[in-house]
Amino acid sequence: MPHRKMKVFTATLIVIASMIGTGVFTSLGFQLMGVHSGFGILMLWLVGGVIALCGALCYGELASAMPRSGGEYHYLSEIFHPFAGFLSGWVSSTVAFAAPTALAAMALGTYVNKVFPSTNPVILGAAVIVIVTFIHSFNLRQSARFQNIFTMLEIVLILFFIVAGFILETPQTFSLLPQQSTALNEGWHSIFSSSFAVSLIYVSYAYSGWNTATYMASDIENPRKNVPKALFYGTVIVMVLYILLNYIFLYSAPAKEMQGQVEVGLISAVHIFGLKIGNMMGMMIALLLIASISSFVLAGPRVAQVMGEDLPQLSFLSITNKHGVPYVAKIIQGFISLLLILTASFGKVLLYIGFTLSLSTFFTVLGLFILRARMKGKTDGYKTFGYPVTPIVFLALSAWMLFFTMKEHPKESLLGLGTILAGSAVYFIKKPATSIHEKSIVPENN
Predict the structure, then answer these.
(1) pLDDT, tens digit, for every residue of 247-271?
(2) What is the pLDDT at residue 187?
(3) Cα(first)–Cα(last) distance of the chain, in Å?
(4) Residue 402 falls within a domain, yes or no?
(5) What angle do the packed helices 223-252 and 140-166 form, to 10 degrees?
(6) Can you list the alpha helix ranges (DSSP code H) found in 253-378?
(7) Nearest-CA neighbor of 268 among 242, 245, 240, 237?
C-alpha cells in the first residue's frame, strides 16, 4: 500500500520551519561583531534572502526535471557523476542535517538556561532530539500534523513579536539609510567589507532550509509542480519575516548588549516586554525551536534513504517501517547530532556547517546550466524565473561569501573540506558497483 503524501501546504510549512529557528534567533550577535551598522545588518538579511530566493528558483527547476527525494545527492549524481552526488549525500547524511539539529538543540538549551540557570542546556537539548526523533519514527501523517502545529505557532509568535516591537515606547536609535558616522549608522562601505562577506555565512545558515522540500520530493503530491511552489512560497515568507524580525531586534535592544550572544531573541524580548514577560517569550522561542529540530529530523534521513536505495553497501539506510519511514537513518542522524552537542561549540559548528552547505548548493546551482544544455528545452516542467541572471547572481554572491569565509576562518573552512575529503575516501574504498546514474533521466549531450 502506498504511503500518504504531503500536500503543498505542509511542504511549504516544512520549508519555513527548516529556515526559521536557530539562525534568526541566534546569529545576530555574531554578525554584530563584524558589521557595526544597522543599515549593514539589514542589508545582510536582504542579500541573504536574495541568495536563498535565487537558489530556491533554481532548485525548483531541478526538482521539476528530477522529481525524486534526495536533493543535491540526486541532482549532482544525475548532472555530473555519481561521485559528485555521493559527496553531497555524504555531507547531508553526516552533518548537513545533524549539525543544524544540534545547533537548534543547543540554542533551545541556552534560551532555557538563561531563564532557569539550574537547567543543564546540553542534557535538555539532547533530550529534545531523542523525543522528536521518536515522534517522527512512526508515520508521515503523525509527523505532518506535529510539524504543522509547531510551525504555525512559530509564525504566530514571530508576528506577535514584530507587532509588539513596533509599539515599544523607548526604541534604540539607528538609521535605515546609510550614513557616514559611527555606531549603528555606518555607510555603504560596510556592505563591501570582508566582515560583511563572512557575516553572510551566518545569515546564509539562517536561510538554510530553503531547499528542504527537494530532500523529500517523493513524499509530496505532484512533486513536479508542488516542490517549486513550496520552495518559492516558503522562501519569500521567511525573507519578509527575517528582515522585520532583525529590524525589531535592533530597534528594541542595544547592539553592544547583543554582540557575541546566542540568545538575542531573549535579550530583545526583555527590552520589549520587561523581565518577567520577556523571560516567558524567551521560553516560547525555546519551545518553538522544536519546529526547526522537527523539520531537520523529518527531512534529513530521506537523503540517506535514497543513498541506501542506490548503493548496495549502504542498503541498511533504506530500511523503512510499514509506513515508509526510514527509521534506521533517523536513528543514525540523531546519534550524530548528539555527538555534536557533546563535543562542539555553537559558533564553530555554525561557521563549519554554513561553509559546507554553501559549497554544496553552489555546485548544484552550477549544474542547472549543464541540465539546460542537455535537455535542450525539451522539458515541460517549471523553468527558473530570470534565467540565466538568477543562477549567476546566486553563484556570484555564494563565491564571494565562500572566498572570504575561507580567508578569515580557515580552520572551520578546512574542516568542511575535510568532511568532503572523508567522503571521497569512503566512496573509493567502497565504490558502488552500480549507480542510479546509469539509468539517468537526464539525457547525455550528443
Answers:
(1) 999 888 888 888 888 788 888 888 8
(2) 53
(3) 40
(4) yes
(5) 30
(6) 255-258, 264-273, 275-310, 327-343, 346-375
(7) 245
422 and 82 Cβ atoms separated by less than 8 Å: no
Cβ-count burial of 180 within 10 angstroms (0-12 exposed, 13-18 middle, 19+ buried)? Answer: exposed
User: 363 falls in which pLDDT band (50, 70, 90)?
Assistant: very high
pLDDT at 178: 59
Cα distance between residue 234 and residue 17, in whole Å:
9
- 6 three-class SS: strand
Burial class (CB within 10 angstroms; exposed 0-12, middle 13-18, buried 19+) of 1: exposed
Summarize pLDDT for 391-432 with one digit per residue, the tens: 999 999 999 888 888 888 888 888 888 888 888 887 777 655
Mean pLDDT, rounded, for 325-329: 84
Q: Which three cell numbers stand for residue 2?
A: 502506498
- Omega before 388 within 30 of 0, i.e. cis: yes
pLDDT tens readout for residues 156-182? 888 888 898 888 767 777 666 655 544
3-state SS, residue 220:
strand
| pLDDT given for residue 377 in this prediction | 59
Question: What's the CATH number where 52 sits?
Answer: 1.20.1740.10
Confirm if 249 and 259 have CB atoms less than 8 A apart. no
Three-point CA angle 16, 22, 24, nearest 5°: 75
Whether 358 contacts 318, CB under 8 Å: no
Residue 437: inside a domain:
no
Q: Strand locations in 83-126, DSSP E?
A: none
Query: How many other CB atoms sit within 10 Å of the CB of residue 430?
Result: 12
Of 229-238, 314-323, 360-369, the range with the lowest mean pLDDT is: 314-323
Interatomic CA distance for residues 369 and 367, integer angstroms:
5
Asked whether residue 445 is assigned to any structural domain, the reply reads no
Range of the domain at 389: 8-431
* Overall average pLDDT of the 62-69 stretch: 84
Of residues 360, 76, 344, 337, the one with CA closest to residue 205: 360
Q: How many domains does the chain have?
A: 1
204 closest CA partner among 403, 36, 50:
50
Residue with cell 516586554: 273
Residue 442 placed within a domain: no
How far apart are the C-alpha atoms of 259 and 206, rounded to whole Å?
Answer: 17
Eight-class DSSP state of 415: H
Cβ distance 49 to 207 under 8 Å? Answer: yes
Beta bridge partners of 381: none
* Integer angstrom CA distances of residue 63 from 60, 171, 226, 293: 5, 44, 9, 24
